[in-house]
Design goal:
By secondary structure, the chain is of the alpha/beta class. The chain is 43% helix and 16% strand.
Length: 243
């Protein structure tokens, strides 16, 4: 199935809201921290599978601005896992042609993490197989608000230029598909601008149990809808019809 999907895909941009780590762990009598650790293992699986399934850009929602409200011990554990990922995965990412960028605020992260992010981004800057974007201390509303503040100084503005202000990247492909695990059916302030025309796929699977086959099934559903409705998601900058 993977090769068939890739043959019909033109470097898609997929976003994933990685939900359900805590619930997965609780149902097994494990700590929530163990759930987050299992979630990191799922990231490895999906990053490896994504290019084989025709994905060129993968944006993962790791830590939202609202997540600071979680218990301090859990937040600290999440930051420790982020440090671990940056320290231990970069060599593998670079070897496999994965370019890593982190979106969201960096000024509120614990000491040393922002520097580790910068080093990881620099070490993987030439990756061309997959662009992996990890959202940390991220809020789509804040990203749009900050872009609007910057745009106020411009004499003219296009959607393309505003998109670059929102994303911090020129020519970033709009999101084609957003997947949310754990059965929840909401966007939770994720990629609101670049995902304006994205297809939405919700699954009951918890993130730690999400496999390459689950990604393939989400993409198969996406391609089926694309064929039925003529690829409307490929027109992200078209204005909405008048009512």
């Amino acid at each position: 199935m993977q090769s068939d999907l890739a043959s019909h895909t033109e470097k898609l941009h997929v976003g994933i809201i990685m939900d359900g780590n805590g619930r997965w762990a609780t149902r097994r009598g494990l700590s929530r921290v163990r759930g987050h650790e299992a979630g990191v293992e799922a990231i490895r699986r999906i990053v490896e599978a994504a290019p084989k399934q025709g994905i060129g850009t993968l944006t993962l929602y790791a830590f939202s601005t609202d997540n600071w409200r979680r218990p301090k011990a859990e937040v600290a554990a999440l930051m420790t896992l982020l440090r671990f990922y940056l320290a231990n995965e970069v060599q593998s990412l670079a070897k496999n042609g994965v370019r890593l960028t982190v979106i969201g605020r960096r000024d509120r992260l614990p000491d040393g993490i922002a520097s580790a992010i910068a080093r990881a981004e620099n070490a993987t800057a030439h990756g061309s197989v997959l662009h992996l974007r990890i959202a940390v201390d991220y809020s789509a509303r804040d990203a749009i608000l900050n872009a609007a503040a910057k745009a106020a100084a411009l004499t003219s503005l296009t959607r393309e230029a505003f998109s670059q202000l929102v994303t911090g990247e020129a020519s970033l492909r709009d999101v084609d598909l957003i997947i949310r695990t754990s059965g929840e059916k909401r966007l939770s302030d994720f990629l609101l601008w670049e995902g304006a025309y994205a297809e939405l796929h919700f699954t009951e699977r918890m993130w730690p149990e999400f496999e390459a086959q689950d990604l393939a099934e989400a993409l198969a559903s996406f391609h089926g809808r694309e064929r039925r409705f003529g690829g409307l998601q490929a027109l992200p900058l078209e204005p909405a019809p008048s009512l």
